[in-house]
Design brief:
This protein has 360 residues and is α+β, with helices and mostly antiparallel strands. The protein has 8 helices and 18 strands. The strands form 5 sheets. A 5-stranded antiparallel β-sheet has the order 1-4-7-2-18, with no helix packed on it. A 5-stranded antiparallel β-sheet has the order 5-6-3-16-17, with no helix packed on it. α5 links the parallel β8 and β9. α4 runs antiparallel to α6.
Length: 360
């Protein structure tokens, strides 16, 4: 590799914290930031397409109320790169370009802190939505994958019949999704979440994106904002090894959760209920161990996972040559000679994530 082409820099935005500031934060508000963790999430790629022009988009951790991206160290042979934000969902993106005739490699080291979200106190929660903002209305829309009309609307009305509040409707939808879906290990990646197809065929099997998309679509069909949370597992789950046993290599640990708005964002994860059942070899949803997991994952938060974004059916930034929107952005995306590649069918090893927990 031509070392003159290396990019060696450390980037910070105004929202990022230095290591010293992080330690001060942890010491000063340790009782508020419960179960505070810091990790290095490392993305590495070597592309064999030496004689072709390659563009690469990599999802970055988003800054939220429960996680912060501290900084990014970039090393590699990219001739041009930038960190930017997609305008519709405010998705953070690392973008790089590799010219023809040169080796193509990249390493991103992303430093992230994350902590336990506050468990929802449903007794104190106003059970109805009021005065939805324009930002919240974004998560009511119908998209090519998140269908809210036709059979989806019909089934949503049946599920919520007789329910008086939004919270009652959301709980009924969550219960229905847990009862009527199943995890299909044969599905590639996290699934595609093609809601209309699943409802047309009456087959509700799949993986996390499929199951979370069903939940989101049914909530939206009832006028309740909901969204997928697209991210990656970076540590072992405290609930079960069946959900995550990530120690260092998180290459295939992408996971899609969900949230629904009832005067606050409520985290839910019906997909992990089904993943738990499959992993623990439990077939009965009424098994006490399953019921315990199911109750926890309606409003609870298993602190082993990092969010990338909420984006579905959107355009990457900068846009691909074809102006082709993508379904979701949990996996890196690549364009070779103007052709946007299938994230699962790339002709090179496009992602190697490693996790290095850091003691604060």
């Amino acid at each position: 590799m031509n070392r003159r082409n290396f990019i060696k820099t450390f980037l910070f935005t105004s929202a990022f914290l230095s290591s010293g500031s992080l330690k001060a934060l942890a010491k000063g508000v340790g009782s508020t930031l419960k179960d505070l963790k810091e990790i290095e999430l490392i993305y590495q790629v070597n592309l064999p397409e030496k004689n072709k022009k390659v563009r690469l988009w990599v999802p970055l951790p988003m800054n939220t109320s429960y996680q912060t991206l501290l900084g990014i160290k970039v090393t590699g042979s990219a001739k041009f790169y930038q960190i930017l934000e997609e305008p519709l969902y405010h998705t953070p993106i690392f973008y790089a370009e590799f010219p023809r005739g040169e080796e193509k490699n990249l390493e991103l080291i992303m430093q992230v802190i994350f902590w336990e979200r506050t468990t929802i106190d449903f007794e104190k929660l106003n059970p109805n939505n009021r005065n939805l903002s324009e930002e919240l209305k974004l998560f009511l829309r119908e998209t090519p994958h998140i269908t809210t009309s036709g059979k989806v609307k019909e089934i949503a009305e049946k599920i919520t019949k007789g329910k008086k509040t939004d919270l009652e409707k959301v709980r009924a939808i969550y219960d229905w999704v847990c009862e009527n879906t199943y995890r299909d290990p044969a599905v590639k990646g996290c699934g595609e979440g093609i809601v209309w197809k699943m409802f047309e065929e009456g087959k509700f099997g799949g993986k996390c994106t499929d199951i979370s998309s069903i939940f989101v679509a049914l909530c939206r069909a009832e006028g309740i904002p909901a969204r997928e949370l697209l991210g990656i597992r970076v540590l072992p789950s405290k609930l079960s090894k069946a959900l995550s046993n990530v120690q260092r290599d998180a290459t295939t640990a992408q996971h899609c959760k969900a949230e629904v708005w009832v005067n606050t964002w409520i985290p839910v994860d019906p997909a992990d209920v089904r993943k738990y059942m499959l992993g623990e070899k439990i077939n009965d949803l009424n098994d006490p161990k399953v019921q315990k997991i199911k109750e926890f994952l309606f409003g609870g938060w298993d602190n082993h996972w990092i969010l990338f974004n909420y984006a579905r059916d959107f355009m990457l930034e900068p846009s691909p040559t074809s102006k082709e929107p993508i379904n979701e952005f949990m996996y890196p995306q690549a364009e070779i000679e103007g052709k946007l590649m299938d994230k699962h069918e790339l002709t090179f090893e496009y992602s190697k994530y490693f996790v290095k927990p850091i003691t604060i």
